[in-house]
Write a structure and sequence with these properties.
It is a single chain. This protein is mostly helical. It folds into 2 domains: about 90 residues, Alpha-helical ferredoxin (Fumarate Reductase Iron-sulfur Protein, Chain B, domain 2), CATH 1.10.1060; about 280 residues, no CATH class. The chain has 21 helices and no strands. The longest helix is centred in the middle third of the chain and has 30 residues.
Length: about 400
């Protein structure tokens, strides 16, 4: 028998939920959703679990991650219960629930923690540069560029990057393992080979996030959806995600090639990759900021403060990065050195907070939820076949 938590309604409201208690369980939200199916009937089920205080049922549920928040359910709700916003709030709650450190919950429920932790990490980066930076030489390279690696040798920064990558991987992966045991661990035992059979779904959805493009109920052609902007959200989201992933790969895996003192032609791969990442991050953050500011779409009408933090940090990371690049190739030493420090003061807290504990972790939880869902479904189907035999 499921355990009821009478205080859960108040708990979920701390993560941004509101109005959902107006729901009278008509099921219209589930009927209109383009992503729901016979095995996953959301948002209705999650609203029901929330109002009844069935916390354990929510913790073992995949449905919140299978929702990509098109907002159709909220638009069509006859009671204005805003089920889309509830699903988003439950995702924040689940992120905090998977995180065994408790940091996610602090970040999602306290602005003081959010701002304070960002400030603390930034201050630590600044302190390290004050104490250990290299020579701030005004001598330029033979090509007229700044000798950035005399100020911050890439070999040292690369080792720090590797340590950061290990830190992020440990916390994010350990949270995903926690997610696995809460969800798959409560179902039937999954055959070992099934993990490999269904693995392609994890890879596909991680790199494409293609369900964002499906998140629309209009019965029109693909070309028409492109024309009227129905796929714009997915396209911009993919641009933002791919830009971030590419930038992360370059600074962690290929820093010696990326943080160079040579001034390559504009068409050189190092510069093209950097420009793509910068344009993607700047365009994506501005696009989503405008949506949230104007509140013209259902999905952007209710914005949590952590959404703004995420966009601001990404924008500052991209803008300081491109300024750093132009200062370096233009032969402006002190502007390059100071901008480099500011860039890392933004980049490090953005990575350390957003990747394992906040908004960016959703990019991992969504495809893993689809993967776990396929494991559970395939196992159940195989079990039914064996039973019939």
């Amino acid at each position: 028998m499921a355990k009821v938590n009478p205080d859960f309604v108040n708990e979920i409201k701390k993560f941004g939920a509101s109005d959902f208690d107006a729901c009278f369980n008509c099921g219209n939200c589930t009927a209109i959703c383009s992503l729901t199916d016979a095995d996953n009937s959301f948002p209705r089920k999650i609203i029901r679990y929330t109002t009844l205080g069935l916390e354990s049922e929510i913790q073992s549920s995949l449905e919140p991650w299978l929702c990509y928040y098109c907002g159709d359910c909220s638009t069509s709700c006859p009671r204005q219960a805003d089920p889309g916003n509830l699903m988003m709030s439950v995702r924040r709650y689940l992120t905090a629930n998977y995180d065994w450190t408790g940091i996610s919950k602090k970040l999602y429920t306290s602005k003081v923690w959010e701002i304070g932790l960002i400030g603390l990490i930034s201050l630590a980066v600044l302190t390290m540069f004050i104490l250990y930076h290299g020579d701030m030489t005004t001598e330029l390279t033979s090509e007229g560029g700044v000798k950035l690696n005399t100020f911050a040798p890439w070999q040292i920064i690369e080792k720090i990057d590797w340590g950061l990558a290990a830190f992020l991987s440990f916390f994010l992966l350990s949270n995903i393992v926690n997610m696995y045991f809460k969800i798959v661990g409560t179902k039937k035992k999954v055959p070992f080979k099934m993990y490999f059979i269904q693995l392609y779904k994890l890879i596909l959805h991680f790199f494409t996030q293609k369900n964002f493009a499906k998140c629309n109920t209009e019965k029109i052609s693909f070309a028409q959806k492109i024309k009227n902007g129905s796929y714009t959200y997915w396209i911009v989201h993919f641009l933002l995600m791919s830009s971030y992933v590419l930038l992360f790969i370059m600074i962690v895996g290929f820093l010696g090639w990326f943080q160079t003192e040579a001034i390559h032609p504009w068409y050189y791969p190092q510069r093209l990759f950097g420009y793509y990442s910068t344009i993607g991050l700047l365009f994506g953050t501005v696009y989503f900021s405008i949506l949230r500011y104007k509140k013209t779409s259902e999905k952007s009408k209710k914005t949590h403060y952590t959404d703004w933090t995420f966009l601001i940090l990404l924008f500052l990371t991209a803008s300081t990065g491109i300024l750093l690049h132009f200062f370096r190739i233009s032969g402006m030493p002190y502007a390059t050195y100071y901008t480099y420090v500011i860039h890392l003061m933004v980049l490090f807290p953005m990575l350390m907070i957003e990747v394992p504990f906040s908004k960016w972790s959703h990019l991992a939880y969504r495809p893993f939820a689809i993967y776990f869902s396929s494991l559970v479904k395939a196992t159940a189907e195989k079990s039914n076949v064996n039973t019939k035999k």
